[in-house]
């Protein structure tokens, strides 16, 4: 507890990232280390989701995007896919009242048509119940992959062009951004990946163009508030230059 207090004191409240995205990896290895089933790792991972969502909200983060199930994860053994789907549906149902109480608004990103009907129903109920919330925006990526999203954006734009609603010559970065499922949401400031792998695994490829990347070996079920604060402190120690020089960043009047 004292450790958390000390880290909180070091955190600059004026430079809290507006948007944190997390690739929650390592549930399977967490279970294997304990000679338990992979599903136990996923169940334990849900506790981390609840903890990190609550803490993000307390810290005043506006957007938290969680990669919960990728398009590629459909290729896992059917029993594991079934367990994950059941867990996702059930967790949303169980947590919705708490999310409402904490003013958290749920958004779903991904190819939801592929999800089992009862899971889709729990998700839609959660989205509806939290639609009025104005605190943390919780973006859950389910059956999501960035290439799926970009392909879909290409179709949306092509259809508009074919219908004469947009001139191909006028297609801009904004046109693409608007056609993504994240359309009006600002890009992530910080992308965290737990579990030790240093890859992006088809997550938010367009949106993380200028995000700060943070990789930690800590497995997702072990990712506690203290580990989260380490990531936020590391983020605050970085200089985001967006192509400019360090001198320009320190003194914006230099042109
Ligand atoms: C992340 O943990 C959860 C999902 C991808 C759904 P993993 O299940 O990938 O855990 P590891 O990588 O096997 O340890
Ligand atoms: C990435 O984790 C997807 C999610 C966290 C949902 P994976 O464990 O599926 O990633 P890879 O396949 O090892 O890259
Ligand atoms: Mg993994």
Shape designation:
globular
Fraction of helical residues: 40-55%
- Counting DSSP H or I runs of 4 or more residues, the number of helices is 9
Unreliable stretches (pLDDT < 50, length at least 5) are none
List how many beta strands DSSP finds.
6
Instruction: Look at the structure and give the mean pLDDT.
Output: 98
Specify the structural class.
alpha/beta
What ligands are attached or bound here? 3-methylbut-3-enyl trihydrogen diphosphate, magnesium ion
Order of strands across the widest beta sheet? 3-4-2-1-5-6
Q: What fraction strand?
A: 5-15%
Radius of gyration: 19 Å
Task: Please outline the helices and strands.
Layout: H1 2-10, E1 19-23, H2 27-33, H3 38-59, E2 63-70, H4 78-101, E3 105-109, H5 117-129, E4 137-144, H6 146-162, H7 173-179, E5 190-193, E6 212-215, H8 225-237, H9 246-250
Parallel strand pairs: 1-2, 1-5, 2-4, 3-4, 5-6
Magnesium ion binds next to loops.
Please explain how this structure is put together.
The protein is built from nine helices and six strands; from the N terminus they run αβααβαβαβααββαα. The termini are far apart. It has a six-stranded parallel β-sheet, with helices on both faces. The protein has 255 residues and is α/β, with parallel strands linked by helices. Helix 5 (117-129) links the parallel strand 3 (105-109) and strand 4. 46% of the residues lie in helices and 13% in strands. The mean pLDDT is 98. The protein has helices at 2-10, 27-33, 38-59, 78-101, 117-129, 146-162, 173-179, 225-237, 246-250; strands at residues 19-23, 63-70, 105-109, 137-144, 190-193, 212-215. Magnesium ion (MG) is lined by residues 25, 195.
